[in-house]
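From the methods appendix. Each design record in this collection lists the tokenized structure first, followed by the designed amino acid sequence. Records were kept in a plain field format so they could be parsed without special tools. The example shown here is representative of the layout used throughout.

RECORD:
FOLD TOKENS (373 positions):
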């Protein structure tokens, strides 16, 4: 029997269908899984943009729009005494701010937001953190690495700096590709506050009548916080535990030699102990049950991509030349940026295991080939 989602309040207008956009929109091929696990989706539809819907007596679900192919983010309100703890914020756009003002006016059941928890520093998750902290006079809770990265990104100038351009030239991106990447500005957030309350892996936080344990998973971001409540049988998985699509696992200019895929796959051990009926609340698409099957499918997906990429390295190629082996459709500027980062993360994983060799040519461009070839 499917659970019934009760909408408590709507935003100024519906910007999209109430149905799960994961079934009505085409996502970039870079995000689609080739093997789909059998998951249980207890809610057949999502709230409309700007609406607040009840998961149960403790939790509320908000969905806000994003200006990307993946056009929404899920946010969560947890009952906290006479108010709420909010998890994640949405991106810093006028539309999102307007929806928040409507939610403040009539979507919180007359209860204030006491605290903000941000799972990680990406702009759809913390873009409005600074604005909300100032607007509501509340405290920001984040892991240290995510807060530091968010502060750092807020200081960056838009466009491609010289080190960034050099990073992508090494990856084999030509002048036309560099021009496309210069159009990618992921800084759609208000500046993060200059202080935060630190979250650590293993911390337990009392929110209302229940304890929530912080489980940190790395790979998609440096120190991504998931929140697990054993009493309720729920985990807020952020981007780390998505259904149907895979989170971006990328290598970028900040750490060119990183191996985030190893971190991501290794983090799954932290979640295997959770009961199979745990309800996962992800940041995109619908809540689901079947986390163990989902983790197995994600592992299979990345093993498959590694095998495809390794086969493509039978002849020396740049990371940019290898992107089509990983992703089988044309990519817009944002998805090209993500695809190059994801290709590099898989190449670094293969290099770290001695399966692929990186060689720098006289042109300063890196090429990858099978070891021993």
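DESIGN:
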């Amino acid at each position: 029997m499917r659970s019934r989602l009760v909408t408590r309040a709507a935003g100024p207008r519906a910007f999209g269908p109430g149905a799960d956009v994961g079934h009505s929109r085409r996502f970039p091929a870079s995000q689609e899984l080739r093997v789909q696990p059998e998951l249980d989706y207890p809610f057949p539809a999502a709230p409309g943009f700007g609406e607040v819907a009840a998961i149960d007596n403790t939790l509320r679900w908000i969905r806000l729009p994003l200006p990307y192919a993946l056009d929404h983010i899920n946010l969560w309100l947890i009952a906290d005494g006479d108010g709420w703890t909010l998890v994640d914020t949405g991106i810093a756009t006028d539309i999102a701010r307007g929806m928040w003002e409507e939610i403040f006016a009539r979507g919180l059941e007359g209860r204030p937001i006491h605290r903000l928890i941000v799972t990680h520093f990406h702009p759809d998750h913390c873009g409005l953190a600074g604005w909300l902290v100032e607007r509501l006079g509340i405290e920001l809770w984040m892991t240290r690495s995510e807060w530091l990265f968010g502060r750092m990104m807020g200081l960056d100038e838009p466009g491609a700096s010289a080190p960034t351009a050099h990073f992508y030239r090494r990856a084999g991106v030509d002048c036309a590709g560099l021009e496309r990447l210069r159009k990618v500005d992921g800084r759609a957030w208000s500046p993060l506050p200059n202080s935060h309350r630190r979250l650590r892996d293993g911390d337990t936080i009392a929110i209302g009548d229940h304890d929530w344990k912080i489980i940190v998973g790395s790979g998609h971001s440096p120190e991504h916080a998931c929140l697990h409540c054993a009493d309720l049988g729920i985990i807020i998985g952020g981007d780390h535990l998505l259904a149907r699509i895979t989170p971006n696992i990328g290598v970028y200019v900040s750490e060119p030699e990183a191996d985030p895929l190893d971190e991501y796959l290794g983090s799954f051990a932290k979640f295997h102990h959770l009961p199979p009926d745990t309800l996962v609340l992800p940041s995109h698409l619908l809540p689901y049950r079947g986390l163990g099957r989902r983790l197995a499918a994600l592992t299979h997906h990345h093993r498959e991509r590694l095998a495809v990429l390794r086969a493509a390295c039978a002849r020396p190629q740049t990371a940019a030349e290898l992107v089509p082996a990983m992703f089988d459709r044309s990519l817009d500027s944002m998805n090209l940026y993500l695809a190059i980062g994801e290709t590099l993360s898989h190449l670094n994983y293969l290099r770290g295991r001695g399966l692929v060799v990186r060689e720098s040519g006289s042109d300063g461009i890196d090429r990858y080939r099978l070891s021993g070839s």
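APPENDIX NOTE: The chain has one domain: 6-370.
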